[in-house]
Amino acid sequence: MFSLMKEKAKVLDKDAITRAIVRISHEILERNKGTESLCLVGIRTRGVYLANRIAQSIKKIEDKEAAVGSLDITLYRDDLTLIASQPVVHKTEIGFDITDKNVVLVDDVLYSGRTIRAALDALIDLGRPKSIQLAVLIDRGHRELPIRPDYIGKNIPTAKNETVEVRLTEMDGQDEAVIVEKNE
Amino acid sequence: MKILIKNGRVVDPANDLDDIRDILVEDARIAKVAKDITVAADETIDASGKIVTPGLIDMHVHLREPGREDKETVLTGTRAALKGGFTTILAMPNTQPAIDSIENVKLLKDIIKETACANVLISAAITRSRMGEEITDAAKLKKEGAVAVSDDGSSVESRELFLKAMKKAKEARLLVICHSEDKAISASGVINLGAVSTRLGLRGISNESEYKRVQRDIQLAERTKCPIHIAHVSCAESVEIIAKAKKKGVKVSAETCPHYFTLTEEAVRGYDTNMKMNPPLRSRKDKDAIIQGLKKGVIDVISSDHAPHTVSEKEIEFDRAEFGVTGLETELAVSVTELIGKGVLDWSGLVARMSVNPSRILGIDKGSLTPGKAADIAIIDPDKEWTVEKGGFVSKSKNSPFIGMKLKGLVEYTICAGKIAYKAKP
Amino acid sequence: MSEAVIWNKKDLLGLEYLTREEIEFILNTADSFKEVTTREIKKVPALRGKTVVNLFYEPSTRTRISFELAAKRLSADVINISTETSSVKKGETLIDTGKNIEALKADIIVIRHSYSGAAMMLAKSLGISVVNAGDGWHEHPTQALLDIFTLREKLGRIEGLNVSIVGDIAHSRVARSNIWGLTKLGAKVTVCAPRMLIPPGIEEMGAAVTSNIDEALKNADAVNVLRMQFERDEQNAFPKQMEYFKKFGITEERLAKAKKNIIVMHPGPINRGIEMSSEVADCPQSVILEQVTNGIAVRMAVLFLVSQAHDIKNENTD
């Protein structure tokens, strides 16, 4: 945890998040022409809740199920030396074969791109998907690798000394996204 | 050479004295002990606030020379002794070669003559090479200068042989010092047998291996009427057996070492080989019994069992490390801290156990500040606090169990044969 | 749950030195690694570029292979040194050997040694990680961890379980590590052996003692059956094999008198007909092979965690 943090602005509220998820769900269905061969893989931890919400949304729209799995990328990170606290390894739970599927990776915030790179490595170790697409709730810029999202909830430019925190009811008790400033 | 020691608290239990006195030393002898001596001297020492005692006597020291001069020599060992306040030490015969013949006694005598800085007495071996098979010639060894015999490091396994040896020693008037250990029981044990040895997964040495042998050795002494001295007593049962024997009138004396009244088996927790010695550190109950034994006089003597070892013999796996710890330089301070500091003994009691009694048991004319006697004197600051540091040892070896310990009591001067043989650095 | 623990130990020397939370943290981490071993590609790059040296002073095929596989599945490079063929035969001390390995820039030494305390001695003198794969009679922490992991998987918990350990307790590092781990996690441990194989003061470690096998099995949820250590035989201390089997062997008849679903464990290799009957070794309650599988996951977790202890810096970055 950061010792000195100041919430600067709320960039998404509950309704905004819901609308973004509905829109992303539509976009996914459009691009993949339905749920055939579609599966969602959330990146732990909040990406998993988002993936579940997208799946629910898809069910509402087309009354079809898209399989959902969760991915832990701790063992694939290249920056374990730099993460703030203990690397805690959770389980990867993907109960279906991803080979020949269109996998949509889901994460809450896209930043340097290293998490996604690790996720790509992990997925490729698990099978041979037909395609891998990326859905993020927020893109805050400052990419360090050539990674680009296919589906974006909202673009939020940030300064380097800021960070974006996404809070979800399932985990944090409420839905919102805020910009937080780190004071050194 | 005249030395005048002024205003020290003179503790001389042999003369029933514990009071402020001046001491005049002249030509290697104690010339005068009185209040307010006003005499011109070559050296005057202000001993106000200090304790002045007869030079201490350690009757269990391994000097390692001849044979293992890498661990210690007569020179470095006697230097360490002086730093600890000891003017007389008894060298154990488990050297290479063992001091088991006239030639070897002569050999050691020459080395002592050449290099010793303090008085070194010689203990010869009971059996040839300490193998426990053939007894040495006690009479000849006594004639050559030995004051005691011991196979220390080992016990004489054969009853019959030891019986014979005791008879010969008695005739020759040599003290028999017993390393009482039944090897069949202690076998390959390395620490005290108990909850700690179980926890650490190490083979244990039971109290039984010591007290059963103490029992046997005392029985033999009773039969032969040979005076014996039980070395390094470590456990409660031994203390009890010795007490009973003394009551019966058996001529047995006993010694213990500072580690047995300061530490317990708990000290071995981290596999620290500086806590490995034989007999091993025992339980809390044993430690308490040793302290009581010292208090009541069942244990007559405190000695160090100074056993220097090189780094390559100690800083290895616990099972393989040599048994033994050094002790000359910490012996007095540990005793002051643990015994005087905790009210077990007073200064007279301590000096008795570290000077008067060893002198009496060995049959030597030391251990007192009587005018006319050799000027062996220790001047001690009883309140000085210091921490034991590895780099501070004068001994060649650094395998001490007290490294890091805060102690009270520091030797300021050691006078041996009328000369200042040691002076503490300011 | 796992979040509370900061793992900052560069070594794993024994379960005596870990807290309950730390042990649970290892087990939870092992859970994630178990999943890796069920994949097609049983590899993750977590220890890529790191070197693990197996330094085995005692012969052991099973433990060594288990550690080797665990390291390889973490993408580490593995070197095996067994003392038959090494400079140790030339008289090199353990610490010198360790320092040489450290100079080669290896990252982790997994050591098995016949002297108790050897792993600790090595760990104190080196800056790289040391994992104890069994030192003398002292501890075999990864064995106990995989035993406990297996129990937890089968029974859902450790707290409140009755676990009996049967065999040569006096000379068993597996027994000692298990006693530490199980009691710290809240289980009740009973050790059962002929009198001469019960070491003094074992109760102070938290275990109840009996020399009656039926009593040991009576309320047990699990029984961990140890190998009778014939290769570390000490003269006159060991009863004969048949006599041992008669008095302490785990048979179907004995299990029938115990709890219905009592779990049967063994660190392996089994002496069929001595510690347990062949039928028991193969019975449905026996989890012996699962222990072997879990051993890889547990050792992966241990290697991963000790390697992290070096890398953790105290800065907060995103």
Name the largest protein-protein interface in this structure.
A-C, 28 and 29 residues
Q: At the first level of CATH, what is the class of the largest domain in chain B?
A: Alpha Beta
- Main sheet specs of chain C: 5 strands, parallel
Query: What is the total tally of β strands of chain C?
Result: 9
Spans of at least 5 consecutive residues with low confidence of chain C? 311-318
- Seen as an oligomer or otherwise, the chain set is heterotrimer
Structural shape of chain B: globular
Molecular structure report:
Chain A has 184 residues and is α/β, with parallel strands linked by helices. Chain A contains four helices and eight strands. Chain A has helices at residues 14-32, 46-62, 114-126, 169-172; strands at residues 5-12, 38-43, 67-71, 102-110, 131-139, 151-155, 162-167, 176-182. In chain A, strands 3-2-4-5-6 form a five-stranded parallel β-sheet. The model of chain A has no long low-confidence stretch (mean pLDDT 90). By secondary structure, chain B is an alpha/beta fold. Chain B folds into two domains: 2-51 and 374-384 and 395-423, Urease, subunit C, domain 1, CATH 2.30.40.10; 55-362, Alpha-Beta Barrel (TIM Barrel). Chain B is built from 13 helices and 18 strands. In chain B, strands 1, 2, 3, 4, 5, 16, 17 and 18 form an eight-stranded mixed β-sheet that branches. In chain B, β13, α8 (236-248) and β14 (252-256) form a beta-alpha-beta unit. The longest helix of chain B is centred in the middle third of the chain and has 18 residues, at 207-224. Chain C has 318 residues and is of the alpha/beta class. Chain C has helices at residues 20-36, 62-73, 94-103, 118-125, 141-155, 173-184, 213-218, 241-248, 252-256, 278-282, 288-311; strands at 51-56, 77-82, 108-113, 129-135, 162-166, 188-192, 207-210, 222-225, 263-265. The longest helix of chain C has 24 residues, at 288-311. The radius of gyration of chain C is 19 Å and the shape is globular. Chain B binds chain C through residues 193-202, 204, 270-271, 312, 315-320, and chain C through 16, 93-95, 113, 115-118, 120-121, 135-139, 170, 173, 176, 199-202, 204-205.
